[in-house]
Specification:
The relative contact order is 0.14. The protein is an alpha+beta fold and 423 residues long. 29% of the residues lie in helices and 28% in strands. The strands form 5 sheets. Strands 10, 11, 14, 15, 16, 17, 18, 21 and 22 form a 9-stranded antiparallel beta sheet that branches. A 5-stranded parallel beta sheet has the order 3-2-1-4-5, with helices on both faces. It has helices at residues 10-20, 51-60, 71-76, 78-84, 94-101, 103-112, 126-133, 159-171, 239-259, 292-296, 304-313, 391-402; strands spanning 2-7, 27-32, 42-43, 65-68, 89-90, 120-123, 140-144, 153-156, 182-186, 191-200, 204-212, 215-217, 221-224, 229-232, 265-275, 278-285, 327-335, 360-364, 367-370, 373-376, 380-388, 410-411.
Length: 423
């Protein structure tokens, strides 16, 4: 089987790694890929948004299976282009990817089908949003409606912060057209958990749980980022909570999407808040999380192609999804200054150390291969992931492995998985 993976970040590197382990796969292509992916796949310098060129490339290489991994191309209908051209494809169509692409849509869906989530109101007019905030309890959460690289969520502790947030999102348009609408949501407290689920449009099967760390600085300080690290499983996600979520969140969401004529095939990422009143949905994504994929995929026992093909074929009910009885921690090595401003092009040393180390991974997020070697090419550079028999051991292993890598302006959080100690 020849496989094409669309994307070029850490999530795609983790997917490529898993695909490379499949006995069914003879050749992997990636577009555009990155320096790490290039060790496992033949990379083509094609934008993830260029559907015409991607489809033409797939035809030229006689691709058997396509995996569309990132949010932007899914929201833009790149999976549709492959499906309409006759390619077996993993990833939801545009009309289903809207569950991530529009927070207003997902909130309306949850309210219509009684799926537990925070109370919210959506506005497309800044003045009306500001008027509403005058009578709102604080703190509140403001969410830009569209895609914003994981950064379009503002937690506002008082009215002044909330007004500034509306200005940032709707007037200054910091997140572009994603801020044409804003969702004003009640602030929920509790443990956050991420659960990625495979779906074939009818059946939904949750993977092992994970927890992301979004803030740039230690102790959850600083700006929101695309993710500074993650661990799996969450010690707070019990069997009882998993059963509740399957019955009241996961399956009802897939049923609701089908009812709306938006059959969802691919990965439904469910961000949960474990509140005193039970689990509630924080957000939906229409793909693997990044860096959640970097801790979930290495723990999966199944051949990833078997599972993804079952999602595409509508036969997921025949798959017994299995995960190792272990743990994983991922620490993001970033460029100092991320997510605001940072320099690129610094040579990375120490990557070869991972090649003969079982249970250790350096998933490339923002890297580039040059004549000088592999250099930094983004804000989040590498996801250093390690396995362990338990979360504490995995965390120790991951931080040990971060010391093997060096580049100028290397930055990381030092408290990824600290919640483990409180479990």
């Amino acid at each position: 089987m020849k496989v094409l993976i669309v994307g070029g970040g850490g999530r795609e590197h983790a997917i490529t790694y898993a695909v490379s382990k499949s006995k069914r796969v003879e050749k992997i292509y990636a577009a555009p890929g990155n320096a790490g992916i290039a060790e496992l796949a033949e990379c083509a310098d094609i934008s993830v948004m260029d559907a015409d060129r991607l489809v033409a490339f797939a035809k030229e290489k006689e691709i058997d299976f396509v995996i569309v991994a990132p949010d932007d191309p899914l929201a833009a209908g790149v999976a549709d282009a492959f499906l309409d051209a006759g390619f077996k494809t993993f990833g939801p169509r545009k009309n289903a990817a809207i569950i991530e692409a529009s927070k207003a849509f997902s909130k309306d869906l949850m309210q219509k089908y009684n799926i537990p989530s925070a109370a919210s109101v959506t506005f497309d007019n800044a003045d009306e949003a500001l008027k509403y905030l005058e009578t709102s309890d604080m703190p509140v959460v403001l969410k830009a409606d569209g895609l914003a690289l994981g950064k379009g969520v503002l937690i506002c502790n008082d009215l002044d912060e909330a007004k500034d947030g509306i200005k940032t999102i709707m007037i200054d348009k910091k997140f572009g057209d994603s801020g044409n609408k804003v969702v004003v949501e009640e602030f929920m407290t509790g443990r956050e958990v991420s659960v990625l689920c495979y779906s074939d449009g009818k059946t939904i099967k949750p993977m092992t749980s994970a927890q992301d760390h979004k803030r740039a600085g230690d102790n959850d300080t600083g700006l929101n980022t695309g993710g500074m690290g993650t661990f799996s499983p969450s010690p707070f996600y019990t069997d009882e909570i998993a059963d509740f979520c399957q019955k009241n969140i996961y399956q009802p969401t897939i049923d609701a999407m089908r009812q709306e004529g938006r059959e969802f095939k691919g990965v439904l990422f469910v961000g949960l808040m474990l509140t005193e009143k039970g689990p509630k949905v924080l957000e939906f994504n229409a793909r693997f999380g990044d860096p959640e994929a970097q801790v979930v995929i290495p723990r999966m026992k199944n051949d990833i192609i078997d599972v993804m093909e079952a999602c595409a074929d509508g036969t997921l009910d025949k798959i017994d999804l299995e995960f190792e009885d272990n743990a994983a921690v991922c620490v993001m090595l970033a460029s100092d200054g991320y997510p605001v401003s940072y320099k690129k092009g610094f040579v990375i040393s120490g990557l070869d150390t991972f090649k003969d180390k079982e249970g250790y991974y350096a998933f490339h997020s923002g890297t580039k291969l040059t004549d000088e070697g592999v250099v930094t090419n983004g804000g989040r550079v590498l996801g250093v992931t390690a396995l362990g028999s338990n979360l504490k051991e995995a965390r120790e292993n991951a931080y040990k492995a971060t010391e093997w890598i060096d580049f100028e302006n290397k930055y990381m959080r030092h408290d990824i998985g600290k919640a483990i100690d409180e479990a």
